[in-house]
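Per reviewer request, we include the raw input and output of the structure prediction for the construct analysed in the revised manuscript.
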Amino acid sequence: MTVSEQVEALVGLLRERSGRVTTARRAIVAALVGAGGHVTAEELTTVVRAAHPDVAPSTVYRCLEALEEIGAVEHVHLGHGPAVYHLAGHAPHQHLVCESCHVVVEVPGILFTALARRVRAEFGFTLQPGHFAVGGLCRTCAPPPA
């Protein structure tokens, strides 16, 4: 699917599920699709305001919230910085973040399935691991194995 087709599909979904689509919302969706990955609301605001200076940061946040409510966008916390957003719809994945160089590695969500089952069985707690990143050290920053 082309970028233009992705934008139109998301705009159509927004229109169908949450009402009208404004010029600002269309610009936000286009910036999000154009980002091609993880992006903060602040980064989106910068991109959108370059073409539409009247779009307020609060409008970007409200649009991201609406996109998240309809399942088109997901957000994740990759550490101590702001939340990042990405388009939903691809395979479930988890994020690993190096605490030294800050590289983000996406791993299949299934990797945490056994842990989620064990936590549920032992503690009665249901994990939602996709919302937060797991910190550690990447292979470049980690000390060599002993």
